[in-house]
Amino acid sequence: MSIHTETPKAVVEAYVLGSQTRDVGLLKQVFHPDAIMTGWLGPDFLNGGPEPFYGALEANEVDDDYGFEIVSVDSTDKIATAELHETNLLGMSFTNHFHIAQLGDGTWRITSKMFRHY
Hints:
- It is built from 3 helices and 6 strands; from the N terminus they run ααββαββββ.
- By secondary structure, it is an alpha+beta fold.
- Strand 5 and strand 6 form a beta hairpin.
- It is globular and about 35 Å long.
């Protein structure tokens, strides 16, 4: 088990680190393979897997002034929710809501991410 998937909070922290450093391999560790990302990017409603997010990180630099605030991480038994605010990720700011589940092997993974760009 990776330290990045030991707890729901560790998953959110790894998501931040992976986004900040453009470490798609790390992000793939914390997202479930069947994860869904749903939300608004400007006027466009997006619904699908995280692959476009990975591609955007691979193709663009993340500025040094990227910022984040983990607003909450709440868990009950084998499920958790988290809220994360990001500023200046690829020049945009986001509110993210995550669903995180504990899998049969004990690891925690993001199963869905709902976001809005502002």
